């Protein structure tokens, strides 16, 4: 059975020591689905929703990118990583907004948390900017879609 990586021999929280690991190309992609509903989707013009606060999806992408870069400030045992790339896209399917966050770096540890945080904060920003239209918004799921470059790669879909 695997043990928790963020506990030391005494069972206390500890950052994982990655000092002996090799630097490799690390990527991760996460997705969040935001159910906006028809009351909000009627405001969709082209590829974005315009509000008094500004363009929803453009603003959310900036917020998600900023959050991905600051993941170590939010998640206590995450390593500080300089990201080489963070690409966030938002598409719509029916009355849902689909957020995808792809993150990469050259490093000794993975970027899964950065991708998950980027997708999550993007979704939260969509909620914040659209709540004036309706509070019937549901952030349905956030999940890791794939990761590469570590001990083992992972992929779902």
From TrEMBL:
GO MF annotation terms: cyclic pyranopterin monophosphate synthase activity
Pathway participation: Cofactor biosynthesis; molybdopterin biosynthesis
EC number: 4.6.1.17
Gene3D superfamilies: Molybdopterin cofactor biosynthesis C (MoaC) domain
Organism superkingdom: Bacteria
InterPro entries in the record: MoaC, MoaC_sf, MoCo_biosynth_MoaA/MoaC, Mopterin_CF_biosynth-C_dom
Enzyme's top EC category: lyase
One Pfam family, short name: MoaC
Alphabetic keyword roster: Lyase, Molybdenum cofactor biosynthesis
Ranges where the Molybdopterin cofactor biosynthesis C (MoaC) domain occurs: 15-150
Primary role: Catalyzes the conversion of (8S)-3',8-cyclo-7,8-dihydroguanosine 5'-triphosphate to cyclic pyranopterin monophosphate (cPMP).
Name of the protein described by the UniProt record: Cyclic pyranopterin monophosphate synthase MoaC
Organism of derivation: Spirosoma soli
Encoding gene (name): moaC
